[in-house]
Design a protein that fits this description.
Number of strands: 7
Structural class: alpha+beta
CATH class: Mainly Beta
Radius of gyration: 18 Å
Largest sheet: 7 strands, mixed
Distance between the termini: 23 Å
Shape: globular
CATH superfamily: FAS1 domain
Number of helices: 8
Amino acid sequence: MKFTSFTKTMALAFALSLSVASLQAQSCSSTQGGGNDAAVAGGHKAEKSAKADKGKDEKDSKDIVDTAVAAGSFKTLVAAVKAADLVDTLKGDGPFTVFAPTDDAFAKLPKETLADLLKPENKEKLKAILTYHVVSGKVLAKDVKAGKVKTVNGKEITVTVADGKVKVDDAVVVKTDIETKNGVIHVIDAVIIPKE
Protein backbone atom coordinates (compact mmCIF):
# COMPACT_ATOMS: atom_id res chain seq x y z
CA MET A 1 0.00 0.00 0.00
CA LYS A 2 1.39 3.37 -0.90
CA PHE A 3 0.50 6.75 0.61
CA THR A 4 0.91 10.06 -1.15
CA SER A 5 2.78 13.04 0.27
CA PHE A 6 1.89 14.31 3.68
CA THR A 7 0.54 17.77 4.42
CA LYS A 8 2.91 20.41 5.77
CA THR A 9 1.09 20.33 9.09
CA MET A 10 1.58 16.57 9.39
CA ALA A 11 5.23 16.84 8.47
CA LEU A 12 5.77 19.44 11.17
CA ALA A 13 3.90 17.37 13.75
CA PHE A 14 5.98 14.30 12.95
CA ALA A 15 9.28 16.17 12.86
CA LEU A 16 9.46 16.46 16.63
CA SER A 17 8.53 12.87 17.33
CA LEU A 18 10.83 11.63 14.56
CA SER A 19 13.88 12.78 16.51
CA VAL A 20 12.76 10.94 19.64
CA ALA A 21 11.82 7.79 17.73
CA SER A 22 15.12 7.68 15.88
CA LEU A 23 17.04 7.92 19.15
CA GLN A 24 14.96 5.16 20.72
CA ALA A 25 15.30 2.90 17.71
CA GLN A 26 19.06 3.18 17.95
CA SER A 27 19.26 2.95 21.76
CA CYS A 28 20.97 -0.44 21.50
CA SER A 29 23.82 1.18 19.62
CA SER A 30 25.89 3.71 21.53
CA THR A 31 27.92 4.44 18.43
CA GLN A 32 25.84 6.89 16.48
CA GLY A 33 27.45 9.23 14.00
CA GLY A 34 26.76 12.88 14.47
CA GLY A 35 28.14 16.32 14.01
CA ASN A 36 30.35 17.30 11.13
CA ASP A 37 32.76 14.55 10.02
CA ALA A 38 34.75 17.10 8.04
CA ALA A 39 35.79 18.63 11.34
CA VAL A 40 37.21 15.30 12.55
CA ALA A 41 40.86 14.83 11.70
CA GLY A 42 42.50 11.86 9.93
CA GLY A 43 42.16 8.52 11.73
CA HIS A 44 39.41 9.76 13.99
CA LYS A 45 37.22 10.37 10.95
CA ALA A 46 37.69 6.79 9.68
CA GLU A 47 37.11 5.36 13.16
CA LYS A 48 33.96 7.40 13.62
CA SER A 49 32.71 6.35 10.18
CA ALA A 50 33.34 2.66 10.97
CA LYS A 51 31.45 3.02 14.26
CA ALA A 52 28.54 4.74 12.51
CA ASP A 53 28.42 1.95 9.91
CA LYS A 54 28.43 -0.67 12.67
CA GLY A 55 25.52 1.11 14.42
CA LYS A 56 23.62 1.27 11.12
CA ASP A 57 24.27 -2.44 10.45
CA GLU A 58 23.03 -3.38 13.93
CA LYS A 59 19.82 -1.40 13.43
CA ASP A 60 19.28 -2.74 9.93
CA SER A 61 19.76 -6.34 11.09
CA LYS A 62 16.75 -6.27 13.45
CA ASP A 63 13.32 -7.14 12.14
CA ILE A 64 10.03 -5.81 13.50
CA VAL A 65 9.75 -8.49 16.21
CA ASP A 66 13.36 -8.15 17.42
CA THR A 67 13.04 -4.35 17.47
CA ALA A 68 9.83 -4.58 19.54
CA VAL A 69 11.48 -6.99 21.98
CA ALA A 70 14.56 -4.77 22.34
CA ALA A 71 12.44 -1.66 22.99
CA GLY A 72 11.05 -3.21 26.18
CA SER A 73 7.73 -1.33 25.98
CA PHE A 74 5.95 -3.84 23.73
CA LYS A 75 5.97 -6.96 25.95
CA THR A 76 2.20 -7.47 25.67
CA LEU A 77 2.27 -6.95 21.91
CA VAL A 78 5.09 -9.47 21.52
CA ALA A 79 3.21 -11.99 23.71
CA ALA A 80 0.09 -11.48 21.57
CA VAL A 81 2.08 -11.88 18.33
CA LYS A 82 3.45 -15.18 19.67
CA ALA A 83 -0.01 -16.37 20.78
CA ALA A 84 -1.40 -15.57 17.32
CA ASP A 85 1.47 -17.39 15.55
CA LEU A 86 2.48 -14.21 13.71
CA VAL A 87 6.17 -14.17 14.70
CA ASP A 88 7.39 -15.79 11.47
CA THR A 89 5.22 -13.46 9.40
CA LEU A 90 6.56 -10.31 11.10
CA LYS A 91 10.11 -11.63 10.84
CA GLY A 92 9.56 -12.22 7.11
CA ASP A 93 10.70 -10.07 4.22
CA GLY A 94 7.80 -7.62 4.34
CA PRO A 95 8.02 -4.77 4.16
CA PHE A 96 5.39 -3.94 6.77
CA THR A 97 4.21 -0.83 8.56
CA VAL A 98 3.12 -1.68 12.10
CA PHE A 99 1.05 0.62 14.30
CA ALA A 100 2.32 -0.81 17.58
CA PRO A 101 0.37 -0.36 20.82
CA THR A 102 2.58 -0.06 23.90
CA ASP A 103 2.13 -2.06 27.08
CA ASP A 104 0.30 0.99 28.50
CA ALA A 105 -2.07 0.86 25.52
CA PHE A 106 -2.87 -2.80 26.19
CA ALA A 107 -3.35 -1.95 29.89
CA LYS A 108 -6.30 0.25 28.89
CA LEU A 109 -8.19 -2.89 27.79
CA PRO A 110 -10.19 -4.68 30.49
CA LYS A 111 -7.95 -7.41 31.95
CA GLU A 112 -10.48 -10.13 31.19
CA THR A 113 -10.64 -9.04 27.52
CA LEU A 114 -6.88 -9.34 27.09
CA ALA A 115 -6.73 -12.65 28.97
CA ASP A 116 -9.57 -13.99 26.81
CA LEU A 117 -7.85 -12.92 23.58
CA LEU A 118 -4.64 -14.70 24.57
CA LYS A 119 -6.43 -18.06 24.98
CA PRO A 120 -5.60 -20.64 22.27
CA GLU A 121 -9.26 -20.97 21.27
CA ASN A 122 -9.35 -17.24 20.38
CA LYS A 123 -6.24 -17.28 18.18
CA GLU A 124 -8.11 -16.28 15.00
CA LYS A 125 -9.80 -13.31 16.72
CA LEU A 126 -6.45 -12.19 18.14
CA LYS A 127 -4.82 -12.60 14.72
CA ALA A 128 -7.56 -10.44 13.16
CA ILE A 129 -6.95 -7.67 15.70
CA LEU A 130 -3.17 -7.77 15.34
CA THR A 131 -3.21 -7.79 11.54
CA TYR A 132 -5.53 -4.76 11.73
CA HIS A 133 -2.45 -2.93 13.10
CA VAL A 134 -0.34 -3.83 10.02
CA VAL A 135 -0.21 -2.25 6.56
CA SER A 136 1.67 -3.79 3.63
CA GLY A 137 4.69 -1.74 2.56
CA LYS A 138 7.06 0.55 4.42
CA VAL A 139 5.25 3.83 5.04
CA LEU A 140 7.32 6.51 6.75
CA ALA A 141 5.69 9.46 8.52
CA LYS A 142 6.53 11.83 5.66
CA ASP A 143 4.56 9.60 3.27
CA VAL A 144 1.36 9.32 5.32
CA LYS A 145 -1.84 10.99 4.15
CA ALA A 146 -5.16 11.30 5.96
CA GLY A 147 -7.82 8.90 4.72
CA LYS A 148 -8.76 5.23 4.63
CA VAL A 149 -5.97 2.65 4.47
CA LYS A 150 -6.37 -1.08 3.90
CA THR A 151 -4.68 -3.28 6.50
CA VAL A 152 -3.28 -6.80 6.20
CA ASN A 153 -6.49 -7.85 7.97
CA GLY A 154 -8.41 -6.70 4.87
CA LYS A 155 -10.33 -4.00 6.71
CA GLU A 156 -9.56 -0.28 6.54
CA ILE A 157 -8.17 1.95 9.25
CA THR A 158 -8.88 5.68 9.22
CA VAL A 159 -5.91 8.04 9.46
CA THR A 160 -6.85 11.55 10.61
CA VAL A 161 -5.07 14.76 11.49
CA ALA A 162 -6.43 17.22 14.03
CA ASP A 163 -4.80 19.75 16.34
CA GLY A 164 -1.33 18.63 15.26
CA LYS A 165 -2.04 15.01 16.21
CA VAL A 166 -2.16 12.03 13.90
CA LYS A 167 -4.66 9.33 14.74
CA VAL A 168 -5.18 5.81 13.48
CA ASP A 169 -8.85 5.15 14.20
CA ASP A 170 -9.05 6.35 17.83
CA ALA A 171 -5.37 5.78 18.71
CA VAL A 172 -2.91 8.67 18.73
CA VAL A 173 0.45 8.15 17.02
CA VAL A 174 2.98 9.04 19.73
CA LYS A 175 6.26 8.04 18.00
CA THR A 176 7.10 7.50 14.35
CA ASP A 177 9.60 5.96 11.99
CA ILE A 178 11.27 3.27 14.08
CA GLU A 179 12.90 1.62 11.09
CA THR A 180 13.66 -2.09 10.92
CA LYS A 181 15.16 -4.33 8.25
CA ASN A 182 11.68 -5.40 7.11
CA GLY A 183 9.60 -2.29 7.67
CA VAL A 184 8.78 0.48 10.09
CA ILE A 185 7.01 0.83 13.44
CA HIS A 186 4.81 3.76 14.46
CA VAL A 187 3.88 3.71 18.17
CA ILE A 188 0.23 4.25 19.14
CA ASP A 189 -1.37 4.86 22.53
CA ALA A 190 -4.33 2.47 22.20
CA VAL A 191 -5.22 -0.92 20.77
CA ILE A 192 -7.37 -0.48 17.66
CA ILE A 193 -10.15 -3.00 17.13
CA PRO A 194 -11.65 -3.70 13.70
CA LYS A 195 -15.38 -3.11 13.41
CA GLU A 196 -17.40 -6.29 12.99
